[in-house]
Amino acid sequence: MAADLGAQQLSQSLDAKTAAISIPVDYSQLLGLRARDSYLDPQLIHAFEEISGKSLVDEGFTKQAEQGRAVILEEAVGELRRRRGRGTSGVDAASSQGFLVDWGLLPGTLALLQEVGEAEVTLEVGKSALSDSKAGPFKRDILLAMALAHCTLASSAFSSQDQIVAGCSHLAEAGKCLKQGGAPPLAAELVREIEDALHDLQAPALLEQLKMPPSASTANARRAALASLKALLADPAAAAKRDGSPMIDAPFASLALARLTAPELVNLLDWQSVAANNAASIPWAFPGMLKSAAIAHMITGVVQRRPSLVHKGEALLQNISPASETLVERVVVKVLLGAPEAASGLLQEAETASASAKPPWSLGSASRASDPTSQSSISQVGRSTEGDQGLLPGLCLLTERWLSEVALKQFWVQEERPPPSSLQAYFQDAKVTSYLAGSGEEGESLKGRLGVLLDQVSQGLQRWRDPPLTPPSADSAASLSAPEARLRTPLLTAAGLTIVAVGIMFVGGLLPVRGPSNQTPRHRKTTAAAAAAGTATRETHSQQPLTWQRATGMEQRLTQPVAEAVIRRWQAAKKYALGPRHDISTLSGVVAEPWLSVVIKDAAAAEQSGWFWTYKLDSLEVVKVEVKPAKRKGLTARTATVSARLHERGDLWSGMGKRVEDASYANPYTVEYTMQFTPEQGWRISNTLVLGDAQ
């Protein structure tokens, strides 16, 4: 009877199209049949029975909706039989565009559409119907069908790992549909399930939202996600899952904070309060959290020219122990706040603390390059005399390198190009100079020093970035050679950066940068006591280069094979000088000043301490040779720059025969040699510049 009545209603709706709703699907889709052009009668019957056997009333629909579904199913089977099982293929265009139903059959039709997986069609037709005043009596059934369609789309989204936000959006829309149904509550149990699911999915949805790169198009979504994240972190106890387990824990916080820009992290929480309340007691705290927040303050302060944020970053660093873990960051802070003397003092403290664990050249002995004693060298930080910038250029280079290669790489960057990390631009900004002149213990006395400091930074960085081709005199060699100035150092750990912090300012090209490791082992100059011995050695062996040159018939023209031979002789001499016997007798035959004094001092320091190196050169390739004339002490001398790629292994050993694991290395690197030629001694190496890992 119901089927007959429904058929009559359907027939009437087809005759009065103005009173009907268009359903843009084929009859085969109403039976859940897809992907075939035609179907056999048993297939039609099976599909009909499978669908009609499920109760719609149990899901919350009205009895009228269930009866309407039965009418539509029977009509679909009958129409397909008339087509001999054919779907849209092979029928006229009008039939393939769908069919019409009147309002009385619409609830059952929408219930059927969502049931067979036509969720998008259900939402499209349902939304259109709700905008019509005739929908009033059928509103609850229409809303329930739309809610279930949203749940279907949510389930599909959740099956993908990167569609959690879309799934939550569909669940939220489903909940809205159900709540619009009025009283009595529509599908109250389903509403509770949706709310519980949305609660448990807050954290993963937030992580997915924060994965979106910051840009103008994602700004609103990120702001909403940040507001939710801030609320969750502020009250993690209120964000427990239904099973009682915490939603906000350390792994979640670590992932979320890693997806923020530096300004977003700075503004997320009151980090001073977090540090004051003992970060370890926070349930979502993770190792390195305060350090990340401190770095975010520092880099934001530099980019936005707000030294006050740098000060806050320094305050956060003071809450991290042990202090050795944040040595480099504290050094950088002092430089950014216009206090290079304080930065130098931190390095001196670190040198003293580590003297018993490392060979003497691992930290501070290189600082003697600008002065015979480490103490006087440290005291010269920030002061400059003609031909000597002290430690300031190296500290500035360290700071710029840390900003660009460590700090900026830890956070999202919204701009297409990363923000500049130039200290010159930073110290030239009026906001920076005004803040630094009016803060700190030095107060007004700093105003007069800022101009001098800026000049030193500008001149020092320019000179250290562009070293002269002709080697400087022996007196200033140590402060000018700076082979690490162009290193692509990883700068990832306090230990590795501490070495660079001092070594970047002085000669260290005897060793390459280690590849993926965070250490940068290289020989350091440790005493001035070997200077006299070096002079005596050069006098004792002054005839050796000439004898060797005559025996080999070396020409003045420096070709790649000749350059390779010189480099191999240097490698052999290095093995003797820095090896277990510390034999410097062959150095003067291949090494010229100022490099000769440097190596002799390194050898003397190593011998005194009992440390030594063993080397193995796996490969050597001379890439380029550039020769140019130069004047040296009134005599015509030829100088050349030789670029080479080497793969070398080096092991550092203690006097007790123990290999130092974190100082040994085995990796390729590129080095630039400065060579000079004199008729008496031929081609020799006068300086080196390690450029980093070979590409």
What does this structure look like?
- Helix 9 (164-179) runs antiparallel to helix 10 (188-200).
- The protein has helices at 2-15, 27-30, 41-52, 63-82, 93-96, 106-115, 119-130, 139-158, 164-179, 188-200, 202-210, 219-234, 250-258, 262-268, 271-276, 289-303, 307-317, 327-336, 340-354, 374-379, 392-407, 423-428, 430-437, 445-465, 477-481, 494-503, 530-540, 543-552, 560-578, 595-609, and strands at residues 20-23, 99-102, 612-632, 635-653, 659-678, 682-692.
- Helix content is 50%, strand content 11%.
- By secondary structure, the chain is of the alpha+beta class.
- The protein has a four-stranded antiparallel beta sheet with strand order 3-4-5-6. A two-stranded antiparallel ribbon has the order 1-2.
- Residues 1-18, 88-95, 355-389, 440-448, 463-555 and 632-636 have low confidence and may be disordered.
- The chain is built from 30 helices and six strands.
- The longest helix is centred in the middle third of the chain and has 21 residues, at 445-465.
- It folds into four domains: 2-200, no CATH class; 232-321, no CATH class; 324-506, no CATH class; 511-692, Nuclear Transport Factor 2, Chain: A (Roll).
- The relative contact order is 0.06.
- Strand 5 and strand 6 (682-692) form a beta hairpin.
